[in-house]
Write the C-alpha cells for this entry.
Amino acid sequence: MAKPDAVVAVLNEEQVLTEKSDAARELYNGSRFGEMDSAGRVQLSLLEAVYLVEKGKLVVKAGNGRSYSTETLVRKAKRGQKGFWTKYLVFKDMRDRGYLVKTALKFGADFRVYDRGVKPGEDHAKWVLFPIHETQALTWHDFSAKNRVAHSTKKRLLLGIVDEEGEVTYYEVAWKRP
C-alpha cells in the first residue's frame, strides 16, 4: 500500500521516471535508487520500481493516470525481461539486507553490489552478482566466464541461488593459490 508521501512516477517501456520533487531526490540521495537525470527526475529500472512499490515508497502510473499494482508491474516485467523474477528476488533480498545494488550490464554481470554504507562514487562495488535459479543449468564454461568477469573488474564473484520457495543462498567464489 502506497504511503501518503510516496513518490509518483510514470512507466515508459521498461523504465520508470519519477516526478521532479524533493521526495524523488531524497529517494536517490538517501538510498541511491535509480539515476538522476538533468531535469531532476529519477530514472528507475523495473526491478527498483517493483521493490519501491512493494515497500509503499513509489506509485507508478500509466499514461492514462491509473496506478499500477505490484502484481501488474511484475507481470509486465516478466514479459519483457527473461529471468526477471529470479533477479528480483535476489535484488530484494540484498536491498533488505542493507546492501546497495546497481546494474552491472557494462561489466557483463547482472548486478554490482556495494558493501553496507558505501555509495557509488565513494568507493567501488565489492561484488559482481549473478542471480541463478536452482533449476537453471550452469556449465563450467558459464561459471568460468562469470569468474573472469569478476576477476577482470577487480571484484568478487557472488552467485545468488534462488530455490523453489524463493529463498536466496549466496556463494562467494574466490581465487586461491596453492
